């Protein structure tokens, strides 16, 4: 999806669609820039904008869009692409929507707009017609045993409190279905990071990197040339405990 003149509409019925939008924006901004991670963690990245209704308001106003248009007319300063999230996009009032329309028609080079809404019919037809629509569901399915999830959670807590070690936990996990273990871990991480996005948007880069590592590990176990599973699990557990220090 990275490139020029991009627009993306996201319709999501999950509990927190902003998490998916922020995760996608982060991946785009990290490409080609070593500084982006620390700038995102401090909520000071010059190539990222998050537009939502201001305090004591239920709508996105025209002044917010005018400022966004001015920002979008420039070039990326750190990343390869500027990214703006508008959430919820259906909160745009009529004047703001009309002001945004021209920018969506003729966006500057290397600019990506992500419009997040669970009420697409509330958006003006002129806005909808100028977006690529991607209907998403939460990527991390909660279809997993609650007992298994609780067991993984307890193991992680024991690691955090130095009451156990990665090798011991890894040996216990090797006795179980590793794909289900990693799925449980992804669910736990997703729930934790979703709370982080609610409080401060982008958070510690280590969490995002670990989330990606677990996802890649789960995918690697489904490939023909599988890695050494025990070393893979131990490596993930060592990485997790290091995050707690």
Please specify the SSE layout and strand pairing.
Blueprint: E1 6-12, H1 17-30, H2 36-41, E2 48-51, H3 62-72, E3 82-86, H4 94-105, E4 111-117, H5 125-128, E5 132-136, H6 146-160, H7 166-173, H8 178-200, H9 205-220, H10 229-244
Parallel strand pairs: 1-4, 1-5, 2-3, 3-4
Helix pairs in contact: 3-4, 6-8, 7-10, 8-9, 9-10
How would you describe what is shown here?
The protein folds into two domains: 6-136, P-loop containing nucleotide triphosphate hydrolases (Rossmann fold), CATH 3.40.50; 146-244. The chain has ten helices and five strands, in the order E-H-H-E-H-E-H-E-H-E-H-H-H-H-H. The protein has helices at 17-30, 36-41, 62-72, 94-105, 125-128, 146-160, 166-173, 178-200, 205-220, 229-244, and strands at residues 6-12, 48-51, 82-86, 111-117, 132-136. The protein has a five-stranded parallel beta sheet, sandwiched between helices. Helix 3 (62-72) links the parallel strand 2 and strand 3 (82-86). Helix 6 crosses helix 8 (178-200) and helix 8 (178-200) packs antiparallel against helix 9 (205-220). The longest helix is centred in the last third of the chain and has 23 residues, at 178-200. It is elongated, with a radius of gyration of 20 Å. It starts with 5 loop residues before the first strand and ends with a helix.
Summing up helix and strand content along with how strands pair, one would put the structural category as alpha/beta
From the alpha-carbon coordinates, what is the Rg to the nearest angstrom?
20 Å
From the N-terminal CA to the C-terminal CA, the straight-line distance is 36 Å
CATH class membership of the largest domain: Alpha Beta
Helix content: 40-55%
Average pLDDT confidence is 83
Low-confidence stretches: 1-15
Report the β-strand fraction as a percent range. Answer: 5-15%
Q: CATH homologous superfamily name of the largest domain?
A: P-loop containing nucleotide triphosphate hydrolases
- How many domain regions? 2
Task: Provide the CATH architecture of the largest domain.
Answer: 3-Layer(aba) Sandwich
């Amino acid at each position: 999806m990275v490139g020029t003149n991009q627009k993306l509409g996201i319709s999501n019925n999950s509990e927190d669609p902003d998490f998916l939008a922020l995760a996608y924006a982060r991946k785009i901004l990290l490409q080609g820039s070593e500084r982006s991670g620390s700038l995102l963690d401090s909520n000071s990245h010059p190539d990222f904008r998050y537009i939502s209704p201001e305090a004591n308001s239920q709508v996105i106003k025209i002044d917010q869009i005018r400022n966004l248009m001015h920002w979008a007319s420039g070039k990326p300063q750190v990343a390869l692409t500027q990214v703006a999230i508008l959430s919820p996009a259906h909160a745009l009032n009529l004047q703001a929507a009309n002001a945004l329309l021209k920018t969506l028609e003729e966006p500057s080079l290397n600019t990506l707009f992500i419009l997040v809404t669970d009420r697409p019919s509330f958006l003006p037809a002129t806005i909808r017609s100028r977006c690529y629509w991607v209907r998403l569901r939460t990527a991390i399915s909660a279809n997993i045993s609650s007992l298994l999830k609780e067991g993984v959670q307890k193991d992680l807590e024991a690691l955090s409190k130095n009451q156990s070690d990665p090798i011991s936990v890894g040996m216990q996990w090797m006795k179980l279905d590793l794909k289900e273990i990693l799925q449980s871990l992804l669910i736990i991480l997703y729930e934790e990071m979703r709370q982080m996005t609610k409080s401060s948007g982008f958070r510690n880069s280590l969490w995002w990197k670990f989330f990606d590592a677990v996802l890649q590990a789960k995918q690697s176990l489904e490939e023909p040339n599988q890695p050494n599973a025990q070393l893979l699990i131990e490596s993930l557990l060592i990485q997790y405990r290091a995050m707690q220090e």
